[in-house]
Structures are given as structure tokens and as C-alpha cells.
Amino acid sequence: MEERFKVTKKVGIFGIIGNIFLLTIKAIVGFASKSQSMIADCVNSAGDIFASLMTFIGNKIASAPGDEDHNFGHGKAEYIFSLFIAISMILVSIKMIIDAIMTLVQGNELIFSWWLIIVCIVTIITKLSLFIYTRIMYKKYNNILLEASMEDHRNDCIITTFTLISILLSLKGINWFDSIVGIGISAWICKTGIEIFMESYNILMDVSVDENTKDIILDLVHGYKEVKAINEISSTPVGYQYIIFLTIAVDGSMTTFDSHTLADNLERNISELENVYKAIVHVEPFEE
Which among 20, 44, 129, 257 is placed 20 to 30 Å from 272, CA to CA? Predict the structure, then answer.
């Protein structure tokens, strides 16, 4: 668990450093050349800095252990801060779409510069490196903050590739494509923001554990011959994991000691699952 939070912190720091560097060079070259796609890419980098900062802060809060006021820890902080990231992405993308449409209608005054090409290539290399590293860490630790960062780095690679294409087309006098790319970039950012928002929202609204995990839990329970019936199974998320509430029915003649031993064994087996934080098993006498 501790290693998971350390890795997320490191990813957040790398993201902040990389995005500050990219924001600086994109802003200088983008505004000097009046490239709408590069300006949109620049604003996207500003959003990336905010996202990386939210990843860093959210991870720090989520890593705090449980206390008297927060018995099951602070894991949901991951989803609260990923919600902030999503909202910022959506708001920024809407503003960029409006600006790009206005430029498309009024005409684009893009001034070609080879520095635009260099900035695009540097951005793609930087973001691709960050994407590969973050993806490896996400696959290992399954953290929504890492997922948001990974998606963001991947999107930036694609976005900047289209920015590069639009700049190259301007050499042929096709300047309108620059505004189209600006709109496309903004729409992509908005789509990603909505997806992250919905995932975070579902967790914060206590969405149930996925069906695959539920089936695994039911299989574990059915493996105990003493269990006559499963009366209820429910769950609530705690960060990236779930608390499982299970009510089972056993033979009414079973001793209290034996029924508690059964419940303890079940709780231990279920809690060993990767995305289960804790299992709570309640035992009732079986009725036909």
C-alpha cells in the first residue's frame, strides 16, 4: 500500500516538471506564431500542470491511514481530486472550442516557424516517455489518479501529432486546418474529462463492486459446505477497494463458536482479494 502511494507521488512530480517545461516553450512559440492548435496545446499543458498537482495532493491525502473520524482511511480522496481534474478539463476544453471556432470564422493568421515543429517533436517525445512510465505503474497499482495521468499523457501525444500535421499543412497555405485541429483537440479533452468525471462520480456515489469480483466472492462462499444460503451481499467503495457486507445462513444447531470461526475464515478469504479492503460477514440461522 505504501509503495502504491510513493509511486503515485513520483508520477505527480514528474508530470508537474514535464508540463511546466512544455507549457513554457508552447506558450512562447504558440503566441508568437498565432497558431490556434499550438495555443490550444499550450492551454492543455496548463491543465496538465493542474492535473499533476491534484494527483500529488490527492495522493498525499489518500495515503493517510484510518483514524477516529475516518475509520476506513482516506482512499476516496483519490476520486475527489480526480473529479477536480475532470471538471477543469471540461471547462478549459469548452473555452478552447469557442476560441477555435471564432478563429475559424474570422480567419487564421498563423505565422509558420520551424520552432513550431521542434516544439511538437519535443512534446511528443516527452509525453510518450511519461505515458509509458505511468502506464506501467498504473497496471501495477491500479490507481485512478495514475489512470487519469496516463490518459492525459496519451491524449497529449495524439493531440500534438495533429498539431504537427496542421503546422506542416500551413506550409501549403492551408491555415484553416489549424483551427479545425484546435477544435478537435478541445473536444478530445472534453470527452476524456467527462469519462474521468463519471468514473469518479460513480465511486463517490458508492457504486457496487463489479460483477466479476462479486462472482468470485460467491464462489468462495459456495466452497463452504456449512453455508446453507446467502441471504444478502452488498458493498461500498473505499478508495480503489471495497468493503463487502455478507449475510449467510447456517444450520441453526451450529454452535456460536463454530459459526464465528466460519465467519472469520470467510472474511479472511474474501479480504485477500486485490480490490477488497475489508469483508464483514453476518451469520443467521437457516430457514426453509
Answer: 257
d(CA 54, CA 62): 12
Edge to edge, what strands does the sheet with 276-285 contain?
Answer: 227-238, 241-250, 276-285
Between residues 281 and 79, which one has the greater pLDDT?
281
CB neighbours (10 Å) of residue 158? 14
What secondary structure letter does DSSP report for 243? E
Distance (Å, rounded) from C-alpha 263 to C-alpha 257?
Answer: 10
Residue among 40, 36, 23, 32 nearest 127 (CA)? 23
Domain ranges of the chain: 2-204, 211-285
128 phi and psi angles, rounded to 5 deg: -65, -40
β-sheet bridge partners, residue 248? 230, 283
Helix (H) / strand (E) containing 137: helix 114-141
pLDDT score at 1? 56
